[in-house]
Design goal:
single chain; 13 helices
Length: 288
C-alpha cells in the first residue's frame, strides 16, 4: 500500500512539473501567443487522438445537448491559454503563473452562480487575501506598466479557466478526462485557424522543437497524467499538490531564462498560494 501511495504521489507531482513547463516555453517561444496556442492545440489534438485510439477510449459524445457546452468550454480554454501567454510575455513567468493561480478563489465565488451551492462568507476573506497578494505583486498600478498588464492578463486568464472548469464540471462523471481534453484542443484548433493567415508564423521551423515539447510534454502527457492521478486523490488534495506548480515554474524560469523573482513576488505569491491551500483543505473537510 505504501509503495502504491508513493507511486501515485510521484505521478501527480510529475504531472504538475510537466504542466509547469508551460510558463518557460510560453515565455521562450518567439511567436505570437495566438499562433503558439494553435500549434499547441493542433499537435496535442493529434497526440491525444492517437492515445485515445491506443487505449480504446470512447470519443462518442453521448447527447447533442453536450455539444454546445463542449464548444463553449473550448472557447474559454482558448481565451485562457492565449491571455496566459500574454501575461508571461508582458511580465515574467513568476507573475504570470501566480496571477493565474487566483483561479481557485474565483471558482469559489463563481460556483454558486453555476451550481446550486450556497455562497460561503469565508470566500470574501480569501478574496481579500488574494487582492493583497496581487497588490504586492504590482504595487504601482500603472496600466502602462508591463508588469501590471501581465497581472491583468493573468487574472483574465484565471477567470476564463474558472468558467471553463465550471462548465465542464458536470460532465466529468460521464466522460473520460482525456476524451474531454481531446475535444477541448480540437475546438481550439478549429476556431484559431484564421490566425495562420493573419499573424506572423515565419519562425515556425526554428520553434518547432519547443512547440512539440509544449504540445506533447506540457499538454498531452502533463494533463493526461493529472487526470489519471485524480483516480487516487480527491480534487482538493490534487489542488493542494498542484499549487506547487508556480514554484516549479519559477525554478525552471530561473534555470533556463535567468529570471530572478523579487521579494514582492515571493511575498505576494505566498499570499495567493496560501489561499489555494486554505480553500483546498476547507473544501476537503466539508466534503467528508
Amino acid at each position: 500500500m505504501q509503495t502504491n501511495h508513493v507511486k501515485n504521489l510521484s505521478g501527480i507531482i510529475l504531472a504538475t512539473l510537466f504542466i509547469s513547463t508551460s510558463g518557460v516555453l510560453g515565455k521562450y517561444i518567439a511567436m505570437p501567443s495566438e499562433v503558439i496556442i494553435w500549434f499547441r492545440s493542433a499537435f496535442a489534438m493529434v497526440f491525444l487522438y492517437i492515445f485515445c485510439r491506443f487505449k480504446k477510449i470512447d470519443l462518442t459524445i453521448q447527447s447533442r445537448r453536450h455539444i454546445f457546452p463542449f464548444l463553449i468550454g473550448g472557447v474559454f480554454m482558448a481565451a485562457h491559454w492565449i491571455t496566459y501567454f500574454y501575461a508571461l510575455k508582458l511580465s515574467n513567468v513568476a507573475i504570470g503563473m501566480l496571477s493565474l493561480y487566483t483561479f481557485p478563489v474565483m471558482i469559489a465565488f463563481l460556483e454558486p452562480l453555476f451550481l446550486k451551492i450556497k455562497f460561503n462568507p469565508i470566500h470574501i476573506v480569501l478574496g481579500l487575501i488574494v487582492l493583497l497578494g496581487l497588490y504586492i505583486l504590482a504595487p504601482d498600478f500603472d496600466i502602462k506598466n508591463t508588469q501590471v498588464q501581465g497581472v491583468l492578463f493573468g487574472l483574465f486568464s484565471a477567470l476564463c479557466y474558472s468558467v471553463r472548469i465550471l462548465i465542464l464540471k458536470q460532465y466529468v462523471q460521464q466522460y473520460n478526462g482525456v476524451m474531454l481534453m481531446f475535444y477541448q484542443v480540437a475546438v481550439i484548433t478549429i476556431i484559431l485557424v484564421p490566425v495562420l493567415f493573419f499573424m506572423d508564423i515565419s519562425g515556425f521551423q526554428e520553434q518547432l522543437p519547443y512547440l512539440l515539447l509544449l504540445a506533447l510534454l506540457t499538454t498531452a502527457i502533463g494533463h493526461s497524467l493529472m487526470v489519471h492521478s485524480l483516480q487516487f486523490f480527491s480534487a482538493s488534495t490534487a489542488s493542494i499538490i498542484s499549487s506547487i506548480q508556480p514554484i516549479f515554474g519559477i525554478i525552471l524560469a530561473f534555470t533556463f531564462l535567468n529570471e530572478v523573482p523579487t521579494w514582492n513576488t515571493f511575498i505576494g505569491g505566498s499570499l495567493i498560494l496560501t489561499t489555494v491551500v486554505i480553500e483546498s483543505i476547507r473544501s476537503r473537510k466539508n466534503s467528508i
